[in-house]
Each structure stands twice: as structure tokens, then as C-alpha cells.
Specification:
two-stranded antiparallel sheet; single chain; 3 domains; 54% helix; 584 residues; elongated; alpha/beta
Length: 584
């Protein structure tokens, strides 16, 4: 094990000044991303230690590995690029603001840090960079133009939206320099000299030198419980690029072309993900479930490495990109009533994996499969079951789809499990509860019924604070003679919070309807607001408009009485029966 890695406790002067202190940020790493919060914390930690006169201040660890080319003198930075890059920016700001820093003191004490030491920490012998950035073709030149050669004294903070744009780390470089400039301008040159002496001689970093990138990544995974820079997606990206280097090591020209193609595909992938509800890491988990068709037994990284070890990395990334495009076009951006119900479910990763498996395999009965899957998950949700009850069946469905098992056979398997678990009885019992108002599934179920009122595809209705479940018979019905004359206490207790008395309203309409008599509620439901400054648009919900239509047709003598509530309950049950293909 000692041959695989060597930990070294090094001062900042040694980290940037030793004969082997040369670093490169490899292409599989993400660009520089630190903003004010992280930079402020780094500065505050170091400056507070300086003020407390700590003799040995520990700034954390970094993990480096021998570069892919064994002849290279540069270490690949697996973890620590943000700190190393930020410290070099700090060195440049010190040089620009205090060009004569410690000039007098250096002749008295060789440990004193002057401009020469700072410059040597950025360039060895004034020509060889201590650190190179390969995260993007433009990033090294941006770093040189704006930080190494730029006139930092004239920089002003970039607009916040520019700093937050990951694809433009040049603005983050400039912002970091401005943050340090503002802090250092508050202290005198003499104080800055003492601070930089402390920084270089009393601040330590443990550098873990690994003989291979693979072991460095393993080391990173072991230490990853403290939120380091890399993600599982970065690790997989690194592994696949390493495979490319190994596969084409005999032909550097082809290797470079293959790597460029890989990086282009990866960047396209990240661009696709920008507008989605999942990131690359979450999509890799979904892809993992699709590839395995069973519950993973190891970490995401280990499982995917096993899956990818005999595959061409360019084919892998291309297939994953197609997988993601299917998700974007056929699921995330789908304007389709039949898919909206999935978005309210708790078990997102499982239904997404199954539907994507079907789409990726061009499963012939996709629509019928989708309907059966939605039914299965909603029945178990309404029945009050947890993830453990549906997890294995979800993985089985991925496997069945990949095996091209007929949709009728899959439905039979699902029905058998539903029967074995006695789900339909639990569903029936829970729908009949005296209080369904506070259940997590009632609002999604009402929305599902709403979508089912038309053959046209409606816009998706989000579950947010603007969407409310409206009690037609209000909680405070006893305040109104109009209610107490037609509804007794026993009837109210039995029906108040059951589906027969519930509907949907949005925002101000719900507030306006509130605890009013029924005729005033109807005015709100139908768009005739109680007050002139209130929303006067007709309710957008068909299931609520049905109440208005019944009122106008004088079906219940324009009252919301016990018969009206019971008929609404029967209507609700009929809608659920159609949705869930069950008998209540």
C-alpha cells in the first residue's frame, strides 16, 4: 500500500516551491467554480489563524496522481484544484498590490517571503507554470490573460450573473482577484508582509501523492464524505477518458481525436441537462438502473465501471447522450396528460428508469406499459405502502422491458403482486377514510381526474402553494344559517374531509371562496367574484366547473346538500375506477 500513495505534510511554500511542485487540472475536472462564499471562508480561516498566531495551521488535504504521460513532471490534481487555483490568484494580487513586499526584511531572514518567492510560486524560473488548467481549451489562456498578465489593480467585480455562469470561469477568476484585492487594500504593506510570511511558512496542506490516477480516484472516494470537488459523474468521466488513453496509447493522434470527440459529447450532455429537473449524477443513476435491471450491490462508480470495462468509451458516452435526449424530449418536455401523473409520485427514479428503458429499447407497447405503470404506483401510494413494496418489482419491470416481455404478461405480473399484497382492499379502505384531506395523494388524484376530463392535452399543473383543495362545505359552516339549515352536524362530520366534498381551486379564488355560503362560492367558482378587485376569471378546473353546471341546472335545488355530496362521492369513485381500472 505504501507504494501506491505517499502523504506529505507540506507548507504552502513547499506546495508551490518544491522541485516537484507542478500541477495540472485535467480535462475530466469541472472548471473553476469558487464564488464569494468559498473565497471569503478560505481568507477568513487563514487570516484568523494568522491573527491568533497559530504556529501550524492545517488547510486540509489535496490528492494528486502521476499524469497519464509518465514522462510528465506535472501532477494530475484529483482533489484540490479550487484551493490551489485560488491561492495562486491570491499570490498575484499580493504581487500587484505590494510589489515591494518584505523587500527590506528578506536580507535579514531567508524565511521571509518577498516578490521573488511569490513569483516563483506561480512560475518556476520565470518560464514554467506551476499550474496548468486543461478543463477547457480557453481556460488556461483566460487565466494567463486576466490573472497572470492582467492588471488586477484596475479590475472591478463582474456582474453576479456572469460570475455564476459555469461556462465562463474567467469571470470567476476576475471575481476572486477582486475579492482578495478588497480585503488586502484594508491592510498596510507591513501587515501584508507578516501575513504572507505566515501563509507560506505556517500554513500546511497534506498532499497525498498517488502513483496512478485510478488509485487517486479510489482515495478520493474514501475521503468524499466531506464534500470534495469531484462528483460520481466526474469520476466516471475520468475513468472513461483513462480507458481512451489506454486503448489508443500506441497512436497519439487518434487518441487525441477520440478524446476531443468524447469531451464534445460530454459538454453536449451537460448542455442538455441544464434545463432538466435532474443533473448528470442523477441521470447516471437512472442509466445504471437501466443497464443493471436489478438493485445495485455496489457504489454507482463501481457498478458503472463494471458495465463499461469492455465497451468503447466513445460508444458509452454516445449511448448515454441518446438516453438523456430521450428523457428530455419524451418525458421531461412531454405535453401529455398521460404522463403528468408521474410527476406527483414519490418514487421518481424508478418510474423514470422504467419508462426510459422502454423508450431506449423502442418497446412496442410503450403507451400501454406507461398506463399500467402509473396505475401500479398510484394504487400502492393510495394503499399507504412504502418504497420497499415496489422496489424489486420496479427493477423487474426494467428487466422485463429489456427482455421484450409482452405488455400483457407484464400487466399480469403486476396484477398478481397487487392481489398478493391485497392492495385493492387497502385502496378502497383509504379512499373511504373520514379524512382524506391531509393525505399526500388526494391532491395528485384530483389532478389526475382533472386531466381525464378531456381528450386534449392540458398544460401541466404544478403542486405549489397556489394550488388548493377547496372544501365545498366549509370548515366553519356553522357560522352561516344558509349551511346549518340544510346540513346537520352528523352529516358534516361524516363528509367534510372526504372526496365528495373536495375540489380544486387556485390562489385567490380559494381565499375568496373560503367559508362562504354556497351561492357565494358558486359566484367565485363561476368567475363572478364577490369583490370587484378580485379575480373574475372562470375557474380553470373542469371538476370544479361541474359543480357550477349542476347549480345552474338546478339539480340539487341550488344547494350543496347531503344528496349533492353523496352524488359527488359516487362521481369521484367512478372517475377513480376509470383511472385505476378497479371497482369500488
Amino acid at each position: 500500500m505504501a507504494d501506491l500513495f505517499t502523504p506529505q505534510s507540506l507548507t504552502i511554500k513547499q506546495i508551490f516551491g518544491n522541485a516537484d511542485s507542478f500541477y495540472q487540472i485535467p480535462r475530466y475536472q469541472r472548471p473553476y467554480k469558487w464564488e464569494d462564499e468559498q473565497i471569503d471562508k478560505l481568507w477568513d480561516d487563514i487570516y484568523e489563524a494568522y491573527q491568533n498566531n497559530d504556529k501550524n495551521y492545517f488547510l486540509g488535504s489535496i490528492i494528486v496522481a502521476n499524469g497519464g504521460d509518465n514522462s510528465s513532471m506535472y501532477w494530475d490534481v484529483v482533489d484540490g484544484q479550487q484551493r490551489l487555483t485560488t491561492l495562486i490568484i491570491l499570490f498575484r494580487v499580493l504581487i500587484v498590490l505590494f510589489p515591494d513586499i518584505n523587500k527590506i526584511e528578506v536580507s535579514k531572514n531567508p524565511a521571509v517571503v518577498d516578490k521573488g518567492v511569490l513569483e516563483s510560486s506561480i512560475f518556476y524560473n520565470q518560464k514554467t507554470e506551476r499550474m496548468k488548467l486543461f478543463t477547457h481549451l480557453q481556460h488556461q489562456s483566460d487565466f494567463n490573460d486576466f490573472i497572470i498578465k492582467g492588471d488586477i489593480s484596475k479590475w472591478r467585480r463582474p456582474y453576479k450573473y456572469l460570475v455564476q455562469a459555469d461556462e465562463s470561469p474567467k469571470h470567476k477568476f476576475i471575481n476572486a482577484a477582486c475579492v482578495f484585492k478588497e480585503k488586502l487594500e484594508t491592510i498596510k504593506e507591513d501587515e501584508a508582509g507578516k501575513f504572507v510570511n505566515f501563509l507560506f511558512n505556517s500554513v500546511y496542506i497534506i498532499r497525498i501523492n498517488c502513483t496512478t490516477r485510478e488509485f487517486a480516484i479510489r482515495m478520493f472516494q474514501v475521503l468524499n464524505d466531506r464534500g470534495l470537488d469531484l462528483t460520481p459523474a466526474d469520476l466516471i468521466k475520468s475513468y472513461l477518458m483513462e480507458r481512451l488513453e489506454t486503448k489508443y496509447k500506441e497512436n497519439k493522434e487518434i487518441a487525441q481525436k477520440k478524446e476531443d470527440l468524447f469531451i464534445t459529447d460530454w459538454q453536449t450532455l451537460e448542455q442538455i441537462m441544464k434545463d432538466l429537473d435532474v443533473d448528470v449524477n442523477e441521470m447516471l443513476v437512472i442509466y445504471e438502473y437501466y443497464l443493471l435491471g436489478e438493485n445495485p450491490k455496489k457504489s454507482l462508480y463501481d457498478e458503472l465501471v463494471t458495465q463499461f470495462k469492455d465497451k468503447d468509451p466513445n460508444e458509452v458516452i454516445n449511448d448515454f447522450k441518446k438516453f438523456t435526449e430521450l428523457y428530455k424530449n419524451r418525458i421531461h418536455n412531454a405535453v401529455q396528460n398521460s404522463i403528468y401523473g408521474f410527476w406527483y409520485l414519490r418514487w421518481n427514479i424508478y418510474w423514470k428508469s422504467i419508462l426510459l428503458a422502454a423508450l431506449h429499447q423502442n418497446y412496442s407497447d410503450y403507451e400501454k406499459l406507461k398506463k399500467s405503470l402509473l396505475r401500479f404506483y398510484y394504487l400502492y401510494w393510495i394503499a399507504g405502502k412504502t418504497l420497499s413494496k415496489i422496489k424489486q418489482t420496479s427493477f423487474n419491470m426494467i428487466k422485463w422491458v429489456k427482455e421484450n416481455k409482452s405488455v400483457d404478461d407484464i400487466i399480469n405480473e403486476l396484477n398478481k403482486k397487487i392481489d398478493d399484497d391485497r392492495i385493492l382492499k387497502d385502496v378502497s379502505d383509504n379512499l373511504k377514510l373520514i379524512n382524506v384531506y391531509n393525505t399526500p395523494w388526494i391532491k395528485p388524484l384530483l389532478l389526475m381526474i382533472e386531466y381525464n376530463q378531456t381528450d386534449s392535452n392540458l398544460p401541466f399543473i404544478e403542486l405549489n402553494n397556489d394550488l388548493h383543495i377547496e372544501h365545498i362545505l366549509p370548515h366553519e359552516y356553522q357560522k352561516f344559517d344558509e349551511w346549518t339549515s340544510i346540513i346537520n352536524k352528523e352529516t358534516a362530520i361524516e363528509w367534510l374531509n372526504r372526496p365528495g366534498n373536495l375540489t380544486l381551486l387556485c390562489g385567490s379564488k380559494n381565499i375568496e371562496a373560503s367559508n362562504n355560503p354556497f351561492d357565494k362560492k358558486i359566484k367565485v367558482y363561476s368567475g363572478k367574484g364577490l369583490y370587484e378587485d378580485k379575480d373574475t376569471k372562470i375557474t380553470a378546473f373542469n371538476i370544479t366547473q361541474k359543480i357550477v353546471n349542476d347549480f345552474n341546472a338546478n339539480i340539487y335545488q341550488k344547494q350543496w346538500n347531503e344528496k349533492a355530496i353523496k352524488d359527488r362521492w359516487n362521481w369521484f369513485c367512478g372517475e377513480v375506477e376509470k383511472l385505476m381500472d378497479i371497482t369500488l
